[in-house]
Structures are given as structure tokens and as C-alpha cells.
Specification:
With about 180 residues, the protein is mainly α. The chain contains seven helices and no strands. The model has no long low-confidence stretch (mean pLDDT about 90).
């Protein structure tokens, strides 16, 4: 049974219709969010790929592994969500295209180069500062999605965006503590 909109009757939906998520309405803002978040996550994966060769901190290595695994899984989920709805899936590293506008919180090419050129405590500081800003940008993207009328109503989008918000806030807190310890 699918409830109707206010003032409308409920309707019976067969199991095939109920499990076909591509039939659930979505908005252009939902599509832009998923496409943009793929590029956003790809930069986080690039950032954590630098960690093993530039830090001596086991805590940084564990943080990087957690971010890498979660972001890679989420990229695959977002790509599938877009494909299931017949929407364009951004090419790998589309965020690097000349003239592409950076999404909230993303590091510029110069900031990425500075991060890649650093090691030890300097790398740890730049990484933590950059990833905190990066995660805060993801929170901005979620807020913008939910502030768009009609957007974020698809059950997968709502669950994903809500998870991003909770996970990123938790990681920001964790990285803030790590940064404070580093600065002592």
C-alpha cells in the first residue's frame, strides 16, 4: 500500500513496482547532488592515498583507511543510483577538468600539490585541516540539498545524505581532536 499525497487516496502497489527504485520520483537537485558528491568523494580518496607514504602516525593511517573504504563504497553506490535512473555518471576525476568549479570544501590544485609535497607533522597538519574543511563542504552540500524544495525525498538520497551528515560530523570531531593533539 502506498499512501497518497494529502487529499489523495492510497493505492495498491505490486511487489515489482515497490522494489523498482528507478520509478521513485527524484529531482534535478538530487541528480546534481549525487554527481557532485562523486567528485567530492574522489578528492577525499586522492587525499587519503597520500597518507601511507607521508605520515608516521598510526592514528592517521587508521583514519585514512576508514575514509578510503567509506568514500569508495559510497562512490559506487552513487554511480549505481545515477545509472538506475538513466542519469549521467561523471567520468573519473571529472573534478580535475579545466575550468571546473570546486564544490564546497574542496582543495584547490595548489593546495593538493602542497599536501602532496609535505611529510611528517607538516603533512598531518595540512591533511587534517584540509579534510576537516573538505568534510564541512560535504555538510554544506547536504544542507543545500535539503534546502531545495522537493529535493532529498527519494528514500535512498535521504538516507545517504543523512548518513553523510552524521558520519562527516563525527569525523570532523575526531580530526579536530587529532589536530589539537598535533598542535600541542
Amino acid at each position: 500500500m502506498q499512501p497518497g499525497a494529502p487529499g489523495e487516496e492510497s493505492r495498491v502497489v505490486d511487489a515489482r513496482q515497490a522494489s523498482d527504485l528507478s520509478a521513485v520520483p527524484f529531482t534535478a537537485a538530487d541528480v546534481r547532488f549525487m554527481q557532485g558528491m562523486i567528485g567530492h568523494h574522489e578528492q577525499a580518496v586522492e587525499m587519503v592515498a597520500l597518507v601511507p607514504t607521508r605520515t608516521a602516525s598510526e592514528g592517521m593511517r587508521k583514519l585514512a583507511l576508514r575514509i578510503d573504504v567509506s568514500q569508495a563504497d559510497e562512490i559506487a553506490m552513487m554511480q549505481e543510483w545515477l545509472r538506475a535512473r538513466g542519469q549521467a555518471v561523471p567520468a573519473a576525476h571529472a573534478m580535475h577538468m579545466h575550468g571546473a568549479a570546486l564544490m564546497p570544501g574542496m582543495l584547490s590544485a595548489e593546495e593538493m600539490a602542497r599536501l602532496a609535497a609535505s611529510t611528517g607533522a607538516q603533512f598531518d597538519r595540512l591533511f587534517l585541516e584540509g579534510m576537516i574543511r573538505h568534510h564541512a563542504g560535504a555538510l554544506t552540500m547536504v544542507q543545500e540539498l535539503f534546502a531545495t524544495p522537493g529535493a532529498g525525498q527519494d528514500s535512498e538520497i535521504y538516507a545517504f545524505a543523512s548518513d553523510v551528515e552524521a558520519d562527516q560530523r563525527m569525523e570532523i570531531d575526531r580530526m579536530g581532536m587529532m589536530l589539537r593533539e598535533l598542535m600541542k
